[in-house]
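Give me the fold.
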Amino acid sequence: MTELRLNAERTSWEWAKSGRTKRTPREASIVGRRRTSSGVTEPVYDPGQVRPATREETVPVLMGALLLGLMALIVCFTQGYVLLYGDAVAHLGIARRILDTRNPGLVQLGGVWLPLPHLLMLPFVQKMQWWQSGLAGAWPSLACYVFGVAGFYRLCRRMLVPRWALLATVFYALNPNLLYLATTAMTEPLFLALLVWMTLLTVECVEAIQAAERKLAARRMVWIGVLIFAAVFTRYDGWVLGAAAWCIVAWQFSRADGLRRSLAPAFAVFTLLALAGPLLWLGYNQHFYHDPLDFMRGPYSASAIEQRTSPPGSRHYRGWHSPWWALLFYTRTAQVDAAAWETGFAVMAAALAGAWIAVRQRVARTPLLLWVPLGFYIYAMAYGSVPIFIPQLYPHSYYNSRYGMELLPALALFACLAAAGMERRLARGRIAAVSPRTGASTTVRPLYLAALALVLANPVAMIYGASVAQWCVSHLRRRPSTVLVRYAPPLVLNEALVNSTTRVPFERNLATVLEELPPGAPILMQESDHIGALQDAGIALRQTINESDYDSWHAALQAPAEHAEYVVAFDGDTVAKAVEQHPQGLQEMTILCGTGQPCARIYQSDGYTASGALTER
């Protein structure tokens, strides 16, 4: 013990001799040094102190997340859940057509959905089997989930002791909605990973600037700039997140009198990366769509979609031009996404209490970046034509419920921060037994055990909770139920199931018809709504004439029978109108209708010459 104390005093003397004004969290947690069997001297950290996570701590978390992700992929793939979301099918289609189309290139990225998710899928989606099965989108999402969980643990260790940091990470990693999204081509796993790592690196950059660690601060600035660039090209909430991160770093940079000159080059690179993303996207829209704001006011923007999908004469959704209603809808959605039954209210209350603790503790303010999605979606719902519907609130339907997942890291971290603070208050005045070997407290705290039990029960309750509650109520009323447990999908998966009940069977039936067409025969078809039929049929997109190829598309609309051997028209779409105006040379082969879907009419051309057909699928 005397040797450890002398080593600690020597460490403090060495730090004071360095001339720096503030210790880093890692240095503050060093209680001494020890010599290993190989003769190397290494620091000894206090195991019960808040400090940055080591690599030895992070690797098991990384491997655990990988195991969970693979298990989720096996379950979702075998159950056919991977392609339930129409947006997931569309994301895969965009990635596929970058190379597999009559006019390949960056123009195929489109002008509304941001391109990074599609570029990450590009190496996988060119394999036909992976495109058809949806695995092409599962691999990038699964990797983002794994690295997101590891980054979240590292962030938690900067604010919580190990057991509470692990508890928060388990709550985050075991969320059934997140595990499902990690098996799909949706953008939420990628954005959550960027959100977590951007917050983590911003915390590290601020601490490095305050501790006068010039090299570390410069590296962190550049990496934050890279993450801002990636977030800007992933989701539009990434634009607001990137601006917030830049403001925090810029404020700390302006206050670092002794470091400003040496950090100026890194800060310039950081600023250029932060600005490059929005400027490039505006330039892309201007070049290809002749409007830099086409993603906001074009035919495929959120406002245009909301106008097309709203019934004539109907009122706007709740939350339209009402920030308070938007706040209610979004926070309630985040609660249901994160926790079972009505426990989401308790999780939200604890998270808000934890945020207040972080505000009062200046060193813990930077992680408040995790709350940025709350403000973004309140504005998006109120003024951006982005409705969110959940069954708990009127009109009791499903739409965009996955947006609440953006608040999951904030709820997990700050709820545990509040619980850890309560535990410290309850433990005041108590004398804890101390292990003579490690120096760590051996007291088992009931609050932590209760929180651990709730965290482990939460995913089970989210999946099976409704039927278990019904069974318990029936037994309390002395009316035993014959069914003990019944599977009830969590909110995000249930939305996918509900909204795909008519689309998936319709596209499968259409794919069956398309598979009977001659290989390589050109097909005129508008793909934006039902590209899943081509995906199911395994038809290469270069075999089709569609709206992504401007010249051939408009030429084919003027004379469908001359440019395509087969024409697929959905009631009311552009191809149907072209057939109505130019029916010459077309013979109707099949009419396919489905509940809740427009009828598809397949025509064969009498005037198409076989010499123009492609030779392979």
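The chain has three domains: 2-45, 55-326+336-347+358-426, 503-612.
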